[in-house]
Amino acid sequence: MSDQLEPKRTSRDLNEIQELLEQWIKERIGDSEATISDLRRPSGSGMSSETLLFNAKAKNTNHNTEYSLVARLAPTPADIPVFQKYDLDLQVRIMKIVQERTSIPIPNVLWLEIDPTVLGVPFFVMEHVDGRVPPDIPPYVFGGWILETSLENQKILEHQSVGIISQLSKIDLKDIDTNFLEFEDEGNSHLRRHFSAQRNYYQWVIGDKRKHPVIEHAFTWLEQNWPEESATVLSWGDARIGNIMFNNDSFVPAAVLDWEMAGLAPVEVDLGWLVFLHSFFQDIAQTYEFPGLPDFMLPETVREIFRDQTGHLPQDLHWFMVYAGLRHAIIMSRINDRSVHFEQAAWTKDVDEVIPHRNLLWTLME
To answer: Which of 2, 3, 118, 273 has its CA 20 to 30 A from that of 63?
Structure first.
């Protein structure tokens, strides 16, 4: 698995970006002699937006000032974006709300640039946070610091991860303007609108090109088994340990990342995503006859941790795991479109072949 080809995300040239970004930084910090260096793309995670790491150095001051920074760029339309739209202002706004209303560690956003003419796409820049992130490529279940640590530390990581969702669920939305988080799709509840948004997203992904049997069946199954809806909370949207940076010497979160899928939904949407995404990786590990982490992020364990932290016992988590599997399947279909674009993959007669968790999703629906 260590030789697995990492999917290509962009055709943008780093040298070109560095020249443009350096000029922009000079204007932002008011230093015509400022420079940037060590511009690079991190590997191992993140498939939707482009992330760049770099250092900036100001020279026109009493003493040299150095910054370690991260830029988050919207994808270019030519590179087959994973999602229909990339609202970077939404991401910055939700990060600010979470930063002000909870103790969840959020990277400090320094600048938001919505003018696409600067780098060709909107972007924002935040301070770099040092830490370690469970990788997606290859998945953390194949080896590394989580797999190698003690069971006690794995339990701490579970509690800390669920604790992020618990804190989000406690934010009082009454005095917050949440209109920017509303889904504009049909439905008489936040979950119904969330679900409708996924239907529309699926149609946008497939167009008139194909239909995925497992996704089509999942939509039907979810409709036929609609759950009792709990209260609406602020939803992270991409709640998984791969979006949490942990301290290098502990299992405490140092930064919580990737807020592009944020919205309003029952808390079970995030909990189901958290559980399912680990189940997905664990299923891959077992396919390759690796032990993985079979007792990690189990549904009942997550439910009990959340209940202990909030006093609320999540309901119908199985339904929300199927919903997470559906959502992730649509994303995988779109990612394959991009891989085909970059000549890293091809479509086969069995279109569900590009959904690596299809068997797991079928099993959940049975």
So the answer is: 118
The catalytically annotated residue of 3, 115, 238, 308 is: 238
Backbone torsions φ then ψ of 19, nearest 5 degrees: -65, -45
What is the spatial distance between Cα 146 and Cα 251, in angstroms, rounded to a whole number?
A: 9
Domain count, the chain: 2
Q: How far apart are CA 238 and CA 20, in angstroms?
A: 30
pTM as predicted: 0.94
Nearest Cα residue to 320 out of 283, 364, 259, 353: 364
pLDDT by residue (tens digit) across 255-278? Answer: 999 999 999 999 999 999 999 999
Classify 305 as helix, strand or coil: helix
Residues 261 and 193 in one domain: yes
Q: How many whole angstroms separate alpha carbon 2 and alpha carbon 291?
A: 16
CA 306 to chain centre: 21
Q: Does residue 350 have an active-site annotation? A: no
Has residue 163 been placed in a domain?
Answer: yes
Q: Is there a domain that residue 57 lies in?
A: yes
pLDDT per residue as tens digits for the range 52-85: 999 999 887 655 688 999 999 999 888 899 999 8
Residue 17: CB atoms within 10 Å:
22
Query: Looking at the DSSP assignment, which residues form a beta bridge with residue 255?
Result: 245
CATH of residue 152's domain is 3.90.1200.10
Instruction: Yes or no: say if 66 and 35 are a contact pair by the CB < 8 Å rule.
Output: no
Tokens of 252: 């405490």
How far is residue 195's CA from residue 323's CA, in Å, rounded to a whole number?
9
